[in-house]
Each structure stands twice: as structure tokens, then as C-alpha cells.
Design brief:
The chain is mainly alpha-helical and 230 residues long. It has one domain.
Length: 230
């Protein structure tokens, strides 16, 4: 099995390089379009980094303390609260029709770079969380919890894109979010967009994460065989 600790410097370096590439593409786009209309993408990429940073912090903490400690719970809440931001970045494609552009193809390429980087950041943190769960829970239970987390993320994307709530509101205006959520749970048939957005993202994220798991497992098997051959 590939040791995560040994592979982490390579992955983190690649993600940093990818993020810098995104910023460079954004700056070139500023020159091309004579506009800072996509500045929000840099901010969204920063938010996409937070779940991975919280997850790395959590894993280090779990080596010395229980997950049930207040530090473990706090970091888990922060991780889960910011995780949807890594996947939410996919919805930024809608701004291709909103931001003035002289080369929409270039803008599409730039946005795709941000989206791919954001998704990889999100799935990397989710994978690390999944591995911590598997150390403590049966495989099926851990997988079901990951599925529930992806469902919550998909619903959070709906709250963010359609209702314009964000992660900060969980702390600044929890009553407002609770009101909107309860209203939709009480009268779900009055909000068909909730189902469409949540289910479509749940399918997308679920399939992408399954692909991620299979890729990682393939790498692990290949690495193990090379070690055995030596």
C-alpha cells in the first residue's frame, strides 16, 4: 500500500503548482479581457484549499488525541463546513455568460483549470477523511458516511448557488439557514430546483469520487507489485 505520508509532498507540490497556474491564467485573462471580472475565482480557489488544510491538521491531531476531543470535533466541523466550497467551484461556469469577454474559449479553459484544481483539492481531503474513518469503522459504514457527506455537500451547493448562502453564514446567521432549510423540508414539492441541483451534484461527485478511489487503488497495487519484484 502506498504510504500517504511519503506521497503527500508530491501531491501538495502538484496542487500548489496547479493553483499558481490558475492564477497565471487569470492574470493573462485580465490582460486579454481588460477586466478583473473573474477575480472571484481566485477567492473561490482559496476557499477550496481550506478543507484540505483542515484535514491535514486534523490527521496530525489524531495522532495524539481522540477524535471525540473538542479539537477533533472542531476541526471536523470546520472541514465539513468548508468542504462544499471545493465542489461549488463547478457552478462558476455560469459566469461565462455574465462576464464580458473578448475570448470566451480562453475563459472556458481558465475556468476549467480552476474547477479541476478545486475538485482535486476537495477529493484529496475527502480521501484522507475516508482513510481515517476506515481505521476506526467497518468499510461499509465508512463508505456510507462518505456518501452522506457527498449528499450534504450537494445540498450545500444548492444552498449556495440558488439561495446565496455561504459557509460564513453557518456561524453568522445559522437561524436564517435553518429557516430556509426547514421550509424546504416541510414543503419539498414547492422547490423542485432543490432536487435537481442536489441529486445532479450528488451523482457527479459520487461518480468522480469512485473514480478517484479506483485510481488510487490501482496505483497502490502497481506500487506493491514493483516492491515485491524487487
Amino acid at each position: 500500500m502506498v504510504e500517504i505520508k511519503r506521497q503527500w509532498p508530491h501531491l501538495s507540490g502538484t496542487l500548489i503548482l496547479s493553483s499558481l497556474m490558475c492564477v497565471v491564467l487569470f492574470l493573462v485573462g485580465v490582460v486579454i479581457n481588460h477586466s478583473y471580472g473573474y477575480t472571484f475565482m481566485v477567492w473561490n480557489l482559496f476557499l477550496a484549499w481550506l478543507p484540505l488544510l483542515f484535514m491535514v491538521w486534523l490527521r496530525k491531531m489524531l495522532k495524539h488525541k481522540r477524535w471525540s476531543s473538542w479539537q477533533g470535533i472542531a476541526l471536523s466541523v470546520l472541514w465539513l463546513g468548508f468542504l462544499p466550497n471545493s465542489f461549488y467551484i463547478v457552478t462558476d461556469y455560469i459566469h461565462l455568460a455574465d462576464v464580458a469577454s473578448t475570448d470566451i474559449l480562453y475563459d472556458a479553459v481558465m475556468l476549467t483549470a480552476f474547477v479541476i484544481t478545486g475538485l482535486v483539492l476537495g477529493f484529496a481531503s475527502l480521501y484522507l477523511f475516508h482513510m481515517e474513518l476506515r481505521k476506526r469503522l467497518p468499510m461499509r459504514t465508512a463508505s456510507r458516511l462518505i456518501g452522506l457527506i457527498l449528499l450534504l455537500c450537494s445540498f450545500a451547493i444548492y444552498l449556495g448557488r440558488d439561495l446565496r448562502w455561504n459557509t460564513w453564514d453557518l456561524f453568522l446567521n445559522p437561524a436564517g439557514i435553518l429557516f430556509d432549510v426547514s421550509d424546504r423540508l416541510i414543503s419539498p414539492t414547492d422547490h423542485p430546483q432543490m432536487y435537481l441541483t442536489t441529486i445532479s451534484f450528488f451523482v457527479l461527485l459520487g461518480v468522480c469520487y469512485m473514480i478517484t478511489l479506483h485510481v488510487v487503488q490501482t496505483v497502490q497495487i502497481t506500487s506493491s507489485r514493483k516492491i515485491e519484484q524487487k
